[in-house]
Design goal:
The complex is a heterodimer of chains A (320) and B (413). Chain A is mainly α and 320 residues long. Chain A has 16 helices and no strands. Chain A is 76% helix and 0% strand. In chain A, helix 5 (92-122) crosses helix 15 and helix 10 runs antiparallel to helix 13. The two termini of chain A are 25 Å apart. Helices cover 49% and strands 12% of the residues of chain B. Chain B has a 5-stranded mixed sheet with strand order 2-1-3-12-6, with helices on both faces. Chain B starts with a helix and ends with a helix. Classes of the chains: A mainly alpha (320), B alpha/beta (413).
Chain lengths: 320, 413
């Protein structure tokens, strides 16, 4: 990319000074074409797999699509009707609230547990490597497997968690089937899945903190708590910011875990925007493709906002 | 970074896109290697079915091959995924198969989209088909397909558990006596009943016998009859006659629960008949609120003939449909009760233990019946949501159903 821009700049600067001979012009054109040829695979890839689906989704959300529309191509342009319908729907506020709670609580726990583990593993001790590798397991498992196992463990009647609770004299909790617990259950599973990601990034961030800072601090008589809050935490801030922002975007779109464990239920108790979009489009008996696309676009907008914050943050870090 | 976030949405579109890619790959690739009968040059016809688990050596594939041989044509079979039939057919609108097997409540959706021919168009004679099964494919007097067979729901029971609790199955004739039986079973230290009230179409499917059995109608979800049916289920869960897990159970997991041998009753489908026979479980029809048998919903696929540019193909397609739906070859191969009287009689002659299920299918009713058509999908979604809300305790049965009726009416406006 950068080579291409500098070249075209150079060409632009040269031309007003001395009009190039036809052969030079042809050579420049040739270079241009070659450059485009090299770019083509990437551009085609981006257009086909990113730009087109996005535009198509926007188009879908501004029209009134039914199954019939796919056959005869007729779908009225309805402006923001789908968005109005979705936002004024009684399912919108619960879905938005669930998405917010799900995302924020996930991040809070994933980050703090991930950070605690990263600091713990930073001190080298026997078996540290093995233990750290074990903590990565949730990341390696297919989500389908993890979510199914969680659903199985949290089953009201035959789940191991309830068996454990009953063994210590507590009553059975309907983890997946009561409105109070369903969201908490999927949160627990999602936090467990997200910890390794936080652990890995924060651990690598720790490696970049100069060891002499800790040495100097210990010479000055700082205890380990002071060292964490005065050295580790502030110096880890850039990495932390990125971890949290990436986590936000990842968590916003979580679909599989919730769908497998509760299908967004009971009722709407654990339905997030992603789940709701799927339910609208493919879950129910009648495919509401356009409102589903509208919900998806709202989700994209939210993720986009966080993406912008991320880019700004990164730019500020590069500058400093 | 932005692209990452977008994956959220692209997912949905990607599914559709993926479906196109996959289905076209399937037509080209898979169909070429499975179930292609090279008989003669009477032409090649394509058939889509949702049974990917039945390979080229299955009885179903053999039934298709036999039809192809009879008619002197080649039938290319493409086994897709049940959930995607509607989407696959829609995205393939310009290149539809000659025959498509469609889950019965989806027939009206596809017919409404203008994808299917009527029996008037393709000249197929439906007079031999049992009217109660056929009506799922009937919209405004036009028939858009014929059932290959049907299955339905019944009430399985475990005689050992009932005996231990001192319950005589003959006394279980209505809602009250069934609840009394459950009470006795629970008192004897066993578990009452298991079913599936999951928040998908399966949940509605399982609730319908009770709903219809109480005299309720899908056009009025908030009727007192509907409330009494949902009250029955809610009370069972509240009193512990049914486990709390029914809220998340699919029919498969519910059957697994029943197979533990701890349960007295289980509402489940005729497709578990052989498993039940093996374990010594028996079955009765779901009772109505005041006795008699409640109508259970029919399950099973319809054989439809999608629109073709070359209308001359319909004549042969109709012959394929006839071959698969007539008699009991197609139905027996798929484990369904045959849709014609002659077919089910032949099945009964071959296996007398089928008597119960043939009777149950005779009393059953399609979900899209009463000319509900495409409205059914919207109503069903609200109904299973109401069931979920009531059973999980987030709303009373009456409130949950009132909200469901309001939401359905709003969507159907």
């Amino acid at each position: 990319m950068s080579t291409l821009t500098t070249r075209s700049h150079a060409g632009g600067a040269a031309s007003p000074a001395a009009p190039p001979a036809p052969s030079r012009k042809r050579a420049a054109l040739h270079r241009q074409l070659t450059a485009w040829a090299f770019l083509a695979p990437l551009v085609i890839y981006l257009v086909v797999f990113y730009a087109y689906p996005l535009l198509r989704n926007l188009d879908l959300s501004f029209r009134d699509y039914t199954l019939r529309s796919f056959i005869d191509g007729s779908a009225d342009f309805v402006w923001f009707d789908n968005y109005v319908e979705v936002i004024s729907s009684s399912a919108f506020i619960p879905a938005l609230l669930n998405t917010t709670v799900f995302t924020l609580v996930s991040i809070l726990f994933q980050f703090s547990i991930g950070l605690a583990l990263a600091v713990f593993f930073y001190r080298r001790f026997p078996l540290a490597m093995t233990l750290r590798a074990l903590f990565l397991v949730p990341w390696l498992l297919p989500l389908l497997v993890s979510a199914s196992v969680w659903a199985w463990m949290l089953n009201s009647e035959s789940g191991i968690v309830n068996a454990g609770l009953e063994a210590i004299g507590l009553t059975q909790i309907n983890w997946l089937t009561s409105p109070q617990w369903a969201l908490i259950s999927v949160l627990i599973a999602n936090i467990w899945i997200g910890i390794p990601f936080n652990l890995v990034i924060l651990y690598s961030g720790l490696q970049n903190i100069p060891v002499d800072l800790y040495e100097a601090a210990s010479l000055d008589g700082a205890n380990s708590r002071q060292m964490f809050w005065r050295i580790t935490f502030p110096l880890l801030r850039p990495v932390s910011a990125i971890t949290i922002l990436l986590g936000l975007v990842y968590t916003l779109k979580v679909f599989d875990i919730i769908w497998i464990m509760t299908r967004g239920g009971p009722g709407d108790a654990s339905s997030t925007l992603a789940i709701w979009s799927y339910r609208l489009g493919f879950g129910g008996g009648s495919p509401d493709l356009s409102p589903a696309a509208a919900v998806g676009n709202i989700l994209i907008l939210i993720a986009f906002a966080f993406g912008l914050i991320y880019i700004r943050l990164q730019r500020r870090m590069v500058q400093s | 970074m932005i692209q990452r976030g977008n994956i959220v949405k692209i997912n949905n579109k990607a599914r559709v896109l993926g479906a196109i890619v996959v289905s076209s790959a399937l037509i080209g690739g898979l169909a070429a290697c499975t179930g292609t009968t090279e008989t003669s040059d009477g032409g090649t016809y394509t058939l889509w079915d949702p049974y990917p688990d039945r390979d080229a050596s299955s009885t179903w594939a053999q039934a298709i091959d036999a039809c192809a041989a009879d008619l002197g044509i080649t039938i290319k079979r493409n086994a897709g995924n049940t959930g995607d039939t509607v989407k696959d057919l829609t995205t393939a609108a310009s290149n539809l198969p000659d025959i498509a097997m469609v889950d019965n409540p989806k027939v009206s959706t596809l017919a409404d989209a203008g994808l299917l021919t009527t029996t008037d168009d393709n000249g197929f004679d439906v007079s031999a088909i049992a009217p109660n099964i056929l009506s799922a494919g009937e919209i405004d007097g036009k028939v858009y397909g014929v059932p290959v067979g049907a299955n339905t729901l019944g009430l399985y029971y475990n005689p050992t558990v009932l005996e231990g609790a001192g319950v005589d199955i003959a006394t279980v004739t209505d809602f009250t006596s069934l609840t009394a039986a459950l009470e006795k079973i629970v008192a004897s230290g066993k578990k009452g009943i298991t079913f599936s009230a999951v928040g998908t179409e399966e949940g509605t499917f399982q609730f319908l016998p009770w709903f219809w059995g109480a005299g309720a109608d899908l056009t009025a979800l908030d009727s007192p009859e509907a409330t009494s049916a949902l009250q029955l289920w809610t009370d069972w869960v509240k009193k512990g006659y049914a486990p709390n897990s029914v809220i998340s159970n699919t029919q498969g997991t519910s059957w697994d629960e029943f197979k533990t041998g701890d349960f007295g009753f289980a509402e489940n489908g005729s497709w578990f008949k052989s498993s039940a026979d093996e374990l010594g479980y028996m079955s009765i029809q779901v009772p109505g609120i005041n006795g008699g048998a409640a109508p259970a919903p029919t399950g099973g696929e319809f054989i439809t003939i999608p629109i073709q540019k070359d209308t001359a193909r319909y004549a042969t397609s109709a012959k394929i449909v006839k071959c698969l739906s007539e008699g009991d070859t197609g139905a027996t191969a798929l484990g369904y009760v045959a849709p014609t009287a002659a077919g089910s009689a032949a099945q009964l002659a071959a296996d007398p233990t089928l008597e119960f299920w043939i009777g149950a299918v005779g009393d059953a009713k399609p979900r899209t019946a009463d000319n509900l058509g495409i409205k059914y999908g919207i109503i069903s979604e609200q109904l299973y949501t109401a069931v979920q809300n009531a059973l999980s305790g987030s709303a009373s049965p009456a409130d949950a159903l009132a909200a469901a009726q309001a939401a359905a009416a709003d969507k159907l406006k």
